[in-house]
Amino acid sequence: MAEHIAEVADVEATPGDRRAANRRKTREGTVVSSAMDKTVVVSVVERVRHTRYAKTMQRTKRLYAHDEQNEARQGDRVRVQETRPLSKLKRWRVVEIVERAR
Description:
Strand content: 35-45%
Helix content: 10-25%
CATH architecture: Beta Barrel
Distance between the termini: 57 Å
CATH class: Mainly Beta
Number of strands: 5
Oligomer: single chain
């Protein structure tokens, strides 16, 4: 056990490793509203396991995301990435449209 701890302590973090640990979060969700200018509301469904009952539950978050070209439409599946605060509620931006609504 002590040998393993010594091995881990010898490893130093390089600047590239630190950058990889600080990567921005990305989420994938469905556009539920695109009525605003350069802003879309994205619904992200997260499946989590209940701590006591171990049942899988769905949690939904609504994220306000910046869409510079107003390309995303309601029903589109989009990938969003965390960014600096752009307004009171906007903290995400649309990276790509994964799938268009049918």
